[in-house]
UniProtKB/TrEMBL annotation:
Family that this chain belongs to: Belongs to the CutA family.
Subunit structure: Homotrimer.
A Pfam entry, by short name: CutA1
PANTHER family, sorted: CUTA DIVALENT CATION TOLERANCE HOMOLOG-LIKE, DIVALENT CATION TOLERANCE CUTA-RELATED
Lineage, uppermost ranks: Eukaryota, Metazoa, Chordata, Craniata, Vertebrata
InterPro entries the record matches: Ion_tolerance_CutA, N-reg_PII-like_a/b, N-reg_PII/ATP_PRibTrfase_C
Superkingdom of the organism of origin: Eukaryota
BP-aspect Gene Ontology terms: response to metal ion
The name this protein goes by in its record: CUTA protein
MF annotations from Gene Ontology: copper ion binding
Length: 135
């Protein structure tokens, strides 16, 4: 009984949170995420952003202007300029998003980092849900 309870806890907790959210209209922290993806130049950034949107893996992708980056690559300190994508999506889509971006990104090891969203505008979250289909 104890083992079964421990195994079922995550599922039951998720159901309770979803039910609470549906009844109260409150946001479940972590339901949505922002992914950060770096790109070599603006054209690559636009191509990747469009590809993400075409696959409906995000509700919105912001393309931020050039920034300088310092990093170690193969033991050497490198300096470059990069374009940063901010991708707003469902947390449940992060794995699929990451796999897809890795398959089309020209970098050997592209930066794909995501952070769950703790709080924000409920109407914006509703729009993300309407824009990004469930799994």
């Amino acid at each position: 009984v104890v083992t079964l309870s421990l195994l079922m806890y995550p599922v039951l907790r998720s159901l309770v949170l979803q039910l609470h959210s549906a009844i109260t209209g409150s946001y479940i922290s972590g339901t949505h995420s922002i992914a950060f993806i770096n790109c070599l130049n603006e054209q690559i950034a636009k191509d990747i952003a469009r590809a993400i949107m075409d696959k409906k893996l995000a509700a919105c992708v912001n393309i931020l202007p050039k920034s300088s980056a310092l990093y170690f690559w193969k033991g050497e300190l490198e300096e470059s300029t990069e374009i940063l994508l901010l991708v707003k999506t469902r947390t449940s889509k992060i794995g699929e998003l990451s796999n897809y971006v890795r398959s089309i990104h020209p970098f050997e090891i592209p930066e794909i980092i995501s952070l769950p969203i703790d709080q924000g505008n409920p109407l914006y979250f509703k729009w993300i849900e309407e824009s990004v289909p469930r799994d």
